[in-house]
Amino acid sequence: MSSHREAPEISKDPVADSTDVYAFVSPDAPGTVTLIANYIPLQNPAGGPNFYEFGDDVLYEIHIDNDGDGRADVTYQFEFTTKMRRPDSFLYNTGPILALDSPNWNRYQTYTLTRSESSGRRSVLGRNLACPPCNIGPLSTPTYAKLAQQAIHTLGKNRKVFAGQRAEGFYVDLGSIFDLGNLRPFQNLHNQFGTGAFSEPADGVNTTKELNVHSLAVQVPATDLTFHGRPAKDPADPHATIGVWTSASRRQARVIEPRQGKELETGPYTQVSRLGNPLFNEVLVPLGHKDEWNALPPADDKRFATYVAHPELAKLLPTLYPGVFPHLDAYNKSGKPRADLLAILLTGIPTGVVPGFQNYTGPTQADMIRLNTAIPPARNPNILGLIGGDPAGFPNGRRVYDDVVTVELRALAGATLPLVDKSYAPDAASSKVTDGLTPADVTNPYLDTFPYLGVPYDGYHHPAS
């Protein structure tokens, strides 16, 4: 349900396809914020001989809006260059890779990181920054965790960057969700149950289990991101909240050189992909508008607000599960807009809705991950974030382990409606909806330090699937 193959055109271009965006106050580095954007979905670790890599012809960007207009005020740009040491070899590596400058590593990448501001100011934060290789196996990358640590670059006080392969940390049962909403905990209540010859497991199945992604991660002082660089200490401060999203852009013209097997791109960059909240384009935007959504900035999301106010999945749930969601069914038939979803996804939650909490960025409707930078990390995090009583978690930003699928399924099922309509009584099932997964379904565990996502799975030990 996060952004894996979420739109027709970008599903054909995985190198430019963002899978997830994370934004959180760094638990181990006070005063800093960590931003992570993942690309290249559903990577099989045994991907040789041409292992996964960022696109030299793609401009990757992480954007921050700090004045609530849905447009970037600060942007971190990643531009990659691929180099080969031995073009006459078919091998990715010709021996063990023990260091980032190993002569055994044949095809490697470096990148330039640039920080730009809406004022026009630009500063190059680093050039020729090394990526780590993919995790190939015990002979090729025998000390991978140590090797990847070398690819964490310090860019001044309290500033770090990493770009490279990581273990997929997003857990989701895509197979059940997109099989007509066949949620495994409720499968026996589905209106199609019994019509096919199948036996359902009681628990969810993690579709992304033991797969990898490519991560862009930056950790910077919160004041690098907030309005006019103001430190935010009071969660009620309207300038404490920032909006975050990622995008990928390609040149407007592509020429395929005949009989050369090469492509040449030219012209200005144009956006082909973006991602903020982890279901917006996938589940809310209709099929005929998904590619259009990918090409637009968040500032234009007002045109998609009707799909948030009247989500198709929320209308389908009472039909798919007869008698299970009668209150939601009645609310749908009333024609009232889903003000709870409009706030959570498009404006942030204003003061007074959840006691002691807000991540409101203003009336501009824009799909962004909204993070109140004045809310400290939780001592005992709850994977359900705000609805689990943990204001440091989703939808206040997004941590790598947050159970965003369960949170959003419950919100669509009506669990968050009482926040804006006190007369609404949620169906009992709305607080039980889940895809049956937890962080325990991620085989390679998360890290306690930057870049937080686990060591990527290696191809040698990856099970056949």
Give a written overview of the molecule.
The chain is of the alpha+beta class. The protein has one domain (10-441). Helix content is 13%, strand content 24%. Strands 3, 4, 5, 6, 10, 11 and 12 form a seven-stranded antiparallel sheet that branches. It is globular and about 70 Å long. The chain starts with 17 loop residues before the first strand and ends in a 53-residue tail after the last helix. The model has no long low-confidence stretch (mean pLDDT 92). It comes from Streptomyces xanthochromogenes. It holds the Pfam family DUF4331.
Please describe the topology of this protein:
Elements: E1 18-25, E2 32-43, E3 59-65, E4 74-84, E5 107-117, E6 122-130, H1 144-149, E7 153-154, E8 160-167, H2 174-177, E9 212-221, E10 241-257, E11 262-275, H3 280-284, H4 290-294, H5 305-309, H6 312-320, H7 326-334, H8 339-347, E12 369-372, H9 404-412
Antiparallel strand pairs: 1-2, 2-9, 3-4, 3-10, 4-5, 5-6, 7-8, 8-9, 10-11, 10-12
The main β sheet shows up as: 7 strands, antiparallel
Termini separation? 21 Å
Which stretches of 5+ consecutive residues score pLDDT under 50?
A: none
Helical coverage, percent range = 10-25%
Can you count the beta strands?
A: 12
Order of helices and strands: EEEEEEHEEHEEEHHHHHHEH
Mean pLDDT: 92
- Count of domains: 1
Output the radius of gyration. 22 Å
The number of helical segments is 9
**Dominant shape:** globular
Derived from helix and strand composition plus strand pairing, the structural class reads: alpha+beta
Strand content: 15-25%
